[in-house]
Design goal:
Elements (H helix, E strand, L loop, with lengths): L1 E4 L2 H10 L20 H8 L7 H16 L10 E7 L8 H11 L2 E7 L1 H13 L6 E6 L3 H6 L2 H4 L14 H4 L3 E2 L2 E2 L1 E2 L9 E5 H6 L8 H13 L3 E3 L11 H4 L2 H7 L3 H6 L9 H15 L15 H6 L3 E6 L3 H8 L6 E4 L15 E6 L6 H11 L2 H9 L20 H7 L12 H4 L7 H12 L5 H18 L7
Parallel strand pairs: 1-3, 2-3, 2-4, 9-10
Antiparallel strand pairs: 4-12, 5-6, 7-12, 8-10, 8-11
Helix pairs in contact: 1-5, 3-17, 21-22
Length: 480
């Protein structure tokens, strides 16, 4: 397998001179979010079936078909190119890709692009007909229309693919457009990007997980007095810090019932939303007090595991499975827990039918090889490899009863505390049109606001302007 981490600036220059056609390419955008319901979570944590008996049987047939197709097609000597954003495949697919190469006698050219450069590069690749055989986007129910725009032109139609039944019903809305299936989403169903905290450390200091912003301030003050960074914020990653604003969409919707529908119909704006302004102000207050770290803007997540294990920090927004990563990679004996992010006095869980999703490029010269790869990665063997090689996963949200999941006790304990009401609202970026498309730009504006270069409401106005531009490209009648 060829693995490359490519500077998008260099690639963008190359695209201009490249002849049209498919082959090597680079990758797309960022954020992660996942869908979950209390019923689904409970069923999975208790070992119940992931889908109905019919779905399970169909999924099994899918895998059988995927495992035998190779015998009927000769792909030897071909090269499959994959364009992906950093963090979406990483090492978790390496074992499966190596087995795919060996099984079919092919080479996989995996090209990984920095998250803050991926979106622009993907658009350039698509519009110049020079995309990789397989490309990824961070998909949600609106993303195909806003990011790919014309899936019939750029994407292979997988509507008749037998692996469709592997995906739960609530994942399909992020993979389909106009009644056709274009994407494959293999993602987890854990609490995603909630507050992870050192439970042992909190106990030693007489602290409890904060439920309001005022409580958060008091906790941060006590931790800072002990020389501990209260909230580890890796601003240099570019995509992490906007989570603090977007993951509490339920709070915005509860503050103004019907807000999501109004935003999706161009009847409301981000600008002048008082709770959104308040959340940005609270975030800046935490930054100004040093509670996010002395140099949070210049700090990335490379050493976050060790920072937690060494007790240099106490909290962070992370996937629940980050707890497993700390335990596996360090010698800490501390216990960790989860709580809802309390900015804006939020009490809602970050529900979302979304996640990194792969698509087959319609202009590929290897359409059958692309289809074979999609079938191959949805077999039980491949899914188990992907899960077992994912330090940040404890499960996969798929219809496959043969898959051995690795749920954490901390996840189960946290989910039991939530009500259906708390889990009913999607995160802001995946419950509203065109919002997730400008994740990185919003993050840049947050940094500008925190460093005194712009006002909070201007951050929100920029999002409105960007969403309006995306709506025009998509010919959305609500913006005409």
């Amino acid at each position: 397998m060829k693995k490359k981490v490519i500077s998008a600036l260099l690639c963008a220059a190359m695209v201009i001179t490249m002849a049209a056609g498919c082959g090597s390419g680079d990758k797309t955008e960022t954020t992660a979010a996942t869908s979950t319901t209390k019923e689904t979570q409970a069923a999975k944590t208790e070992g119940s079936e992931a889908g109905s008996a019919a779905d399970t049987e169909e999924a099994a047939e899918t895998k059988a078909e995927g495992e035998t197709t190779a015998a009927n097609t000769d792909f030897a000597g071909e090269e499959l190119s994959i364009l992906v954003s950093a963090g979406w495949m990483d090492n978790r697919y390496d074992e499966t890709i190596a087995r795919f190469e060996e099984t079919y006698g092919v080479t996989v050219d995996l090209q990984t692009i920095p998250a803050d450069q991926y979106g622009d590069l993907l658009q350039s690749k698509l519009t110049t007909d020079s995309c990789a055989d397989i490309f990824w986007i961070q998909s949600n129910p609106f993303a195909i229309a806003s990011q790919i725009v014309d899936p019939e032109k750029y994407c292979i139609d997988f509507s008749d693919a037998s692996w469709k039944s592997v995906m739960p019903e609530n994942r399909l809305s992020a993979c389909e457009y106009d009644g056709k299936l274009y994407g494959l989403q293999i993602w987890h169903n854990s609490p995603e990007y909630v507050m992870v905290y050192n439970k042992t450390l909190f106990g030693e200091l007489g602290l409890e997980a904060p439920k309001t912003y005022d409580e958060m301030l008091k906790v941060c003050e006590k931790l800072a007095a002990e020389g501990i960074t209260p909230w580890f914020e890796p601003g240099a990653d570019g995509w992490q810090h906007p989570l603090a604003f977007f993951q509490i969409g339920g709070a915005y919707e509860a503050d103004q019932p019907g807000l999501y529908d109004k935003l999706n119909n161009n009847e409301a704006t981000f600008a002048d939303n008082q709770l959104m302004i308040k959340v940005l102000e609270q975030y800046k207050e935490l930054a100004d007090k040093g509670y996010l770290g002395e140099d949070w803007i210049g700090t990335d997540s490379t050493n976050m595991v060790n920072e937690f294990a060494d007790r240099n920090c106490a909290m962070a927004i992370a996937n629940s499975s980050f707890i497993k990563q700390i335990q596996d990679e360090t010698e800490t004996t501390d216990e960790f827990g989860l709580f809802l992010e309390p900015l804006g006095d939020n009490t809602y869980f970050p529900t979302s039918p979304a996640g990194p999703t792969m698509f087959g490029y319609k202009g590929t010269t290897h359409p059958e090889l692309v289809k074979e790869f999609f079938s191959f990665v949805t077999t039980t063997e491949s899914l188990q490899e992907i899960l077992d090689n994912s330090p940040s996963y404890t499960n996969l949200d798929v219809n496959d009863d043969k898959l051995q999941q690795h749920w954490l006790p901390e996840e189960e304990e946290f989910m039991k505390t939530l009500t259906d009401e708390q889990m009913k609202t999607p995160v802001l970026q995946n419950g509203t049109k065109y919002t997730n498309d400008y994740w990185m730009q919003f993050g840049q504006d947050m940094v500008a606001y925190c460093t005194g270069q712009m006002e909070a409401n201007d951050v929100l106005k920029n999002m409105d302007n960007n969403r309006a531009e995306a709506a025009k490209v998509a010919n959305d009648p609500a913006w005409k």
